[in-house]
Design a protein that fits this description.
The complex is a heterodimer of chains A (66) and B (269).
Chain A: E1 2-5, E2 8-11, H1 18-24, E3 33-36, E4 39-40, E5 56-64
Parallel strand pairs in A: 1-5
Antiparallel strand pairs in A: 1-2, 3-4, 3-5
Chain B: E1 15-17, E2 20-22, E3 26-28, H1 36-46, E4 50-57, H2 69-72, E5 79-82, H3 90-103, E6 109-112, H4 125-137, E7 141-146, H5 150-159, E8 163-166, H6 180-189, E9 195-197, H7 203-211, E10 216-219, H8 221-224, H9 229-249
Parallel strand pairs in B: 3-10, 4-5, 6-7, 7-8, 9-10
Antiparallel strand pairs in B: 1-2
Helix pairs in contact in B: 1-9, 3-4, 5-6, 7-9
The chains are: A mainly beta (66), B alpha/beta (269).
Chain lengths: 66, 269
């Protein structure tokens, strides 16, 4: 299935949870927040929330700003 | 630094934002620095306790060991103030605030800024009002960046914003406080902290904001774009403190003509 992650297309072999996606992205242990289809998915649900074909995923972090 | 005089002065009351006390009245941003080491050094030197950050897409698949801003500016040490910079609609600003709250583990203090156009980065006031209403209903504590319009400032306060932050001049312009009389009018009726946000170029601008009676000053470029940002961070810390002291002391009245400082009596002529 195909999802969009931070505006880029990504092909996934199987249905995965957010936690699996995060570990594939090597983001474990970092500070980030995740939105799927413009809705926040809270950290406590990352283990159980499965991604679906066509999902738009945003992963954000804090950077320098004024 | 030795300071024997101030120890005998009454201690100033703290800045209180959303029920939390702060000793420093200087708030700083973390953008435009050369690297994270310079960011850290400048922010430490500034003495700021409230530090703004932006929320952006994570770089996917690039250098996983890249240090994160929040590893350097720790939320354990600083009050992190996520902003909505780059948002031009209420919807985008609200979405950004929700992401920030999730990112910071439920921390609900945000700096709301909804911009009008890219050239001036002037606040879009109607979108700002709309976003503020949604965010306050959703439990956010909103520090709001806005124009120096006294009526809008009052409206934002009445809506429940925890601080109102009128611009001194456009973001990143360094033009100083362009309309001190408007800032004065805003201050006259305010019951929440009024902070000048944006426009400060150098130390005297920060002092002017404080001498007007502002509760604090928020700046980024004035420090980050100085030739020596660390030294400018120190200058800004001192400027905010001295401006505040001058405000507390109460300046002398202005007079058109001279008034001799030395006595007339006992002159030899």
């Amino acid at each position: 299935m195909k999802i969009q992650i931070n505006g880029e297309p990504l092909e996934l072999a199987d249905k995965v949870t957010i936690s699996v996606l995060v570990s594939q992205m090597a983001l474990e242990g970092q500070r980030y927040a995740i939105e799927v289809n413009e809705e926040i998915v809270s950290r406590s649900n990352h283990d159980t929330h499965c991604l679906n074909d066509g999902d738009q995923v945003e992963i954000v972090q804090a950077i320098g700003g004024g | 630094m030795t300071n024997t005089v101030s120890s005998s002065l009454p201690v100033d009351k703290p800045l209180i934002v959303a029920g939390k006390e702060y000793k420093s009245r200087l708030l700083v941003g973390t953008g435009k620095y050369k690297d994270l080491a310079e960011t850290k050094a400048a922010i430490e030197m500034s003495g700021a306790e409230i530090v703004t950050v932006a929320v952006r897409r994570t770089n996917i698949g690039q250098n996983a060991d890249e240090p994160n801003l929040l590893d350097v500016i720790s939320p354990d040490k600083y009050t992190i103030l996520p902003n909505t910079a780059g948002c031009y609609t209420a919807k985008d600003a609200v979405r950004t605030c929700k992401l920030a709250r999730e990112l910071l583990g439920g921390h609900d203090l945000v700096k709301l800024e909804v911009l009008g156009d890219q050239k001036t980065l002037y606040p879009n006031v109607t979108e700002t009002l709309s976003a503020a209403e949604t965010l306050i209903k959703d439990g956010f504590k909103v520090m709001v960046y806005t124009t120096d319009d006294p009526l809008i400032a009052q409206r934002l306060e009445e809506m429940g914003c925890v601080a109102v932050m009128p611009l001194g001049a456009p973001i990143g312009s360094g033009l100083g406080i362009r309309n001190p009389y408007n800032i004065k009018m805003i201050l006259e009726n305010a019951k929440v902290p009024i902070l000048v946000d944006a426009g400060v170029g150098t130390a005297s601008d920060a002092s002017i904001a404080m001498e007007l009676g502002c509760e604090g000053v928020l700046m980024n470029t004035a420090i980050a774009a100085a030739k020596d940002p660390i030294r400018m961070a120190n200058a800004m810390r001192l400027a905010v403190e001295s401006g505040r002291e001058a405000w507390l002391a109460g300046r002398m009245p202005r007079k058109l003509y001279a008034s001799a400082s030395s006595p007339i009596d006992g002159l030899i002529i």
